[in-house]
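From: lab user (bench 3)
To: helpdesk
Subject: output format question, protein + G3I

Hello, I'm new to running complex predictions and I'm not sure whether the block I got back is the full result or only part of it. Here's what I submitted:
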Amino acid sequence: MRLRRLLLGSAVAVVLAGTLNVVPVSAGSTPQEPSGQSLRALGARHGLYIGTAVDMAALDDANDPQYRQLVASQFNTVTAENVMKWESLEPTRGNYNWGPADKLVEFAKKNNQKVRGHVLVWQNQLPAWLTEGVANGTITTAQLRDLLRKHITTVVKRYKGKIWQWDVVNEAATDPWDSPPEIHLKGFWAQHLGAGYIADAFRWARAADPSALLFYNDYNLEAFGDKGPGDKTYFVYKMVKQLRQSGVPIDGVGSQGHLGTQYGNYDAFQVKEALDAFSDLGLATAFTEVDVRSQMTAGVQAGDSNEINPRLQASAANFSVLMQACLANRHCLSYTVWGFTDKHSWVPGWFTNPPEGLATLYDENYQPKRAYNSIKADLIFSGPPYVQPRIPQNPKR
Ligand code: G3I
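Helpdesk reply: Thanks, we reran it on our side. This is the complete output you should expect:
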């Protein structure tokens, strides 16, 4: 799959370089002109942080200096794409591998960036010793709960004062295409510990760091549907409302924002409505993992601009819808993309049948795409009265 990905990637990079949609970084502009400024500088006009997930292997690669340079220059918040997940931090029981996560936190400090911690509780990328221990009965339910408390406490304390927002619980809810279609809690933790693990996780995280903002994070939360039993956004809305009413220290909802150009997506008003509903509960909001993938048809792979250009344009429009909605919600604190270059994106390795790609702001040669300039334009051509500075969020006790 890796070979296929590489071949596909280089073909598309070559093709894109020849299309109208590859925009020179700052052609004809001086640093004083807004189009020549970085995303992070333009976001700062609104108090909005612009972030990216960081692939630590790419950041460390001496032969790939542009990756590091762009992470540092374009973004003022970073998220570990993988190295803060439990399987990375504690690959064998009791032995922690802090190195890569520490390195990201140091990089962020050096570059005056905030860090989104990702992720404390998720059913994926758990260490095998944990899942196997539960499966073979050597870890009991009571021990599992203790292990989760210890994990959260250990990780949050290690980075106490250094993490801006923690994704405390990630992707706990089903999707309408799951069975049964009524949205419900899913996965390892709900199965073994019951629904109460969510409130517990937030309380343990708060006890370990009183100053971090604590988020529930999920995908397919961009807009409300019919507010019926199959409406995931509404399910999460009701869940976090209940958590707030019970005094659980939750501070925000992260809407991941993984979109595809082949789907019927939303407009900025619909997305703003969902963000407003969450912030009306007293919660901060954020886009935490934005990317917009496209199907890599034979035409796209062959370089047919009739097929490539509509995808790049649709991708740009979707990035922009989420940015405009975020700008319009004063509690939307950050807009983070899940990788910024098609050279390092989870999409081609994950969606292989049919193949998908083109999901990020820059192509495989680090040339900014239309999507990059679209969100840049949103940051430039917006302001009062409809776009106002962010309202800071204070951690709930
Ligand atoms: O660690 C192994 C490595 O030892 C091995 O050599 C390599 C071979 O391909 O695989 C490595 O593991 C991969 C891991 O990323 C680290 O690179 C896994 O195969 C791969 O499945 C894993 O994918 C990550 C995925 O989460 C796993 O669930 C993606 O990089 C990451 O972008 C993705 O991120 C998630 C967010 O955390 C939550 N929201 C959805 C988002 C996209 O799926």
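A quick orientation on your result: The chain has one domain: 47-382. Let us know if anything else is unclear.
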